[in-house]
Amino acid sequence: MSQALSRLHDAVCNGSFRGIEGLVQEALDAGHTALQILNLALAKGLEEAGARFERGEYFLPNLMMAAKAMSTAMAVIQGRLATEGAAQVSGGTFVIGTIQGDIHSIGKEIVAAMLEASGFRVIDLGVDVKPHLFVERAVEHSADIIGISALMTTTMTHQQKVIEILKERGLRDRFKVIVGGAPVTASWAQRIGADDFATDAVSGVRKARRFVER
Amino acid sequence: MATLRILTEEGVHRIHEATLELLANTGVKVGESRVRQILLRNGCRDLGSELLGIPRELVAETMLRPQAPLVLQGTDPGRSLTLDGSACYLQNFGSVSVVVDLDSGDLRDATYRDAVDMARLLDALPHCHHAGPLVLPVDMHPRKAKLAAAVATLLYTGKPVSLGAVSDAQEAELCVEMSRVVSSPERPIGRISISPISPMTFPTDICEAIHVAAVSGLPLLGLPCPIRSMGAPLFLAGALLGQNTENLAFGVMARLVNPEVKLMHTSRIGTPHMRTGAKAGADPDVGVAGACMAQMARYYGLPSNVYGMDTGALVSDAQAGLEKAANTLRPMLAGADQISGLGQLGGGLVASFVQAVVDDDIFSFLSHHLQALTVEPGTLDLAGFRRVVGEGESFIIQEATLEALNAGDVWTPGRISAPGSWDEWAADGRKTAHDRARKFARDLLASDPVRYRDDHQEAALNAIVEAA
């Protein structure tokens, strides 16, 4: 690996996201393609961060910072990747959002970042997302999993609506649905017909992986 | 750093003055021995019936002078402890002859195998900073059992070690010999404990043990264990006076033998159950006494070693957790250097692998209470607020978040903490803290042992046991 790619790999792995755009530019200036940067530096750096997290060497903020470094660097090469015609390798596509009436974003963003760090292509719909939009975006992006977040007991009831729409449109078997958020329990997930639930980012990612590996 | 004071300055002074009065005029029983002769040569008065009055000038000369910080050396230098008042360290209880079986949960006699297993477990527990023989094997000759348990500790831990409590000159000599096998001249390994009899009685064998141990230059732990209403007054203040007097008498004797010997000030005050006479493990005064003696230790410029993790509980249950935590927190906050009791149940009559793991976690949790709260620009994290509120970032990806984690600003849940949610816990078989602690101990003991001595050292140590 060249010095430029090595520095980029380490920056992602160490979560040094501030100024990482400059390192990407250095790698491009050194003659590396965007695909080389992605596969040899960014993905490997993130993979190493994930491995350190799994081994208990990294805390959640380390992983979040690595994911932020990855996404910041990706923003620089995204256009070039398209030009180069490179298809990104993905562990699956995950559509995620906070349900209608709920504007809490932090938990959902942590899950999204960790999914990205784990190799998922993540479509983040943001907060206060209407139930039908989860379904439509999942179809549009050929998603594997839909993740619906809710922090409040008053908004978690809307999670059920997404599953009802999937059933109405004959799409229920096409997507796995994971519900999450502090008030969500296994019995709630079971009652509304979700495939699984997660109370934290780590278990959410673990369950998502299981679905795409089956 | 001490943030709690139970005794007022006047209270400390009164205990000290009463101690001097007791030592000089009531006197200490000292059996015929080299130590007795040394005391007489240094101005102690023969009060008859083996009692010697220790004049206040002699106490001042030997005990009221600063002692350099005590360093308890580990085989692994990174695990050596400097007792300078800046931190509080945990050590295990000692010499228990019955143990809760890790598999059956039943009580049974302790064996040499338990001594080895316990040493391995203590070595692996990160908050057990100082290890000693927690069990006393009963599957060998009693004369050899204590030494064999000390050998097991020396073989399987790289931490600073206690060589156990000695009762006579020969045991002390053998402990010194064991220390020489594993030590270098610059880094002597091992601490020797010696217990006089309360109230204020130093029989011949104990005096001879003090002489041998003091000459060796190893750190000494004088361990008077006054039981209130039996070896000391029932009033806690009176019991503190008894402990303090016996501690100072021990110190005077050791320092007259070797002025450079390093000492610790201890608290091992026990309270009997006032209906049965049995030692009451469930005793909040354990913590109070430990905190008071930590204060007295500072008055004399000595590091303190006090009881804390005491409990009357017979199993690792809520009673054990409550009593151990409450009795440990008070001396911790009062600035104790070392707290004893890890791994014991039933008022010190039962040893438990599971409880050792639980106690390690309890100490970790309590240690967080000692952490100083730093209020400065970096910890207020104004820059983080600007980036999050103004630029839409998240606190979790701020550099200050990592700095706080690395600085230990957040307590990391330990081995016995319940993971995740109720649902996850239920799906995982509803395991209790006890289950998790037992699993840790089992997994550890199923792994390959870490050995800290070479074959030559091991053979030399075993030969010392055989010679006993």
* Count, helices of chain A: 10
Q: What is the correct CATH architecture of the largest domain in chain B?
A: Alpha-Beta Barrel
Strand content of chain A: 5-15%
Shape label of chain A: elongated
Describe the model.
The complex is a heterodimer of chains A (214) and B (468). Chain A is α/β, with parallel strands linked by helices and 214 residues long. Chain A folds into two domains: 3-84, Methyltransferase, Methionine Synthase (B12-binding Domains), Chain A, domain 1 (Orthogonal Bundle), CATH 1.10.1240.10; 93-213, 3-Layer(aba) Sandwich (Rossmann fold), CATH 3.40.50. Chain A is built from ten helices and five strands. Chain A has helices spanning 3-14, 20-29, 34-54, 60-84, 106-117, 131-140, 153-156, 159-168, 186-192, 201-213; strands at residues 93-98, 121-124, 145-149, 176-180, 196-198. Chain A has a five-stranded parallel sheet with strand order 2-1-3-4-5, with helices on both faces. In chain A, α4 (60-84) packs across α5 (106-117). The longest helix of chain A has 25 residues, at 60-84. The relative contact order of chain A is 0.12. The model of chain A has no long low-confidence stretch (mean pLDDT 89). Chain B is α/β, with parallel strands linked by helices and 468 residues long. Chain B has two domains: 70-370 and 456-467, Alpha-Beta Barrel (TIM Barrel), CATH 3.20.20; 377-406, no CATH class. Chain B is built from 17 helices and 17 strands. In chain B, the strands form four sheets. In chain B, strands 6-15-14-13-12-10-9 form a seven-stranded parallel sheet. A four-stranded mixed sheet of chain B has the order 2-3-1-11. In chain B, strands 8-7-17-16 form a four-stranded mixed sheet. In chain B, β16 (344-345) and β17 form a beta hairpin. In chain B, α2 (34-41) crosses α8 (236-257) and α6 packs parallel to α7 (204-216). The longest helix of chain B has 22 residues, at 236-257. Chain B starts with 8 loop residues before the first helix and ends with a helix. The mean pLDDT of chain B is 93. Chain A binds chain B through residues 15, 17, 59-62, 64-65, 68, 106, 109-110, 185-187, 197, 199-200, 203, and chain B through 394, 396-397, 401-402, 405, 420-424, 427.
